[in-house]
Amino acid sequence: xxxxxxxxxxxxxxxxxxxxxxxxxxxxxxxxxxxxxxxxxxxxxxxxxxxxxxxxxxxxxxxxxxxxxxxxxxxxxxxxxxxxxxxxxxxxxxxxxxxxxxxxxxxxxxxxxxxxxxxxxxxxxxxxxxxxxxxxxxxxxxxxxxxxxxxxxxxxxxxxxxxxxxxxxxxxxxxxxxxxxxxxxxxxxxxxxxxxxxxxxxxxxxxxxxxxxxxxxxxxxxxxxxxxxxxxxxxxxxxxxxxxxxxxxxxxxxxxxxxxxxxxxxxxxxxxxxxxxxxxxxxxxxxxxxxxxxxxxxxxxxxxxxxxxxxxxxxxxxxxxxxxxxxxxxxxxxxxxxxxxxxxxxxxxxxxxxxxxxxx
Length: 360
Fold this sequence. Notes:
about 350 residues, alpha/beta, 2 domains, 11 strands, globular
């Protein structure tokens, strides 16, 4: 599958809306770092839904809460992170009751990991044990959940998984340092898919890879998703990369979702000034040469957030009410955008939207 054909299938899926029923639902998730009055509010009432067979992109600047969101949702958040409120509902097969992961007993949670939900962590070299061969690291996860399998079965599965991600099966005997960065990232994807999970979380899987390898990884993810039918949460700071792989995109800023909707609509018609700033931070691949504008200033201190809209100190379109009133994530004033949600006062009235945010 070429990247252009992958993108075509993504745009078609986005135009039709979510692919299937919800499989993972995050409700009013609140996460703090630290305790008492000095704690930092990393997530403030985040709501997000992943559907069956969908690729959901999660984008934003470093420190906006992307990784904190998925680590909290899977109960992998390390101290001093503290989940202060909310629910994370996992929906099993049709007809079964949803499971609140945040209140799931430890034994059930351990059994569900790698089977229901798997994670490809950021930094493959740091995630792989340097003193064990990659085949051993893949089969360890299988043995923990499939104790009835023989060693031969586990070894065959490891070779099958490597072939699935485009690595020669005889590489099972290689150590991590004997593989390139792209191959190590593919090993992490193979390991995550070992037990055929229904949800795959990818935390910046293309970070530190060159653009050619990024393209290959993105193509691989789209192909595997189409073949195996799992759902994906794809985390990155590069919105332009998400356009190639995601069905929907959610934009995070200062611990909140400020915009989400179909990927192709957000790329062509961003409705939040922060989304527009992210898109303008990357050079276009086609058309006339344009000057990169970027976003002025820096993300806010999570221990001392601005009043009103947290983005207003950096927003070129800020109004008086932005300083005092907090916008709520909701539909836009433009007809035909039922699938879009934006937290920006400009979207309350179509006449308020400046030209860069009103490209129809």
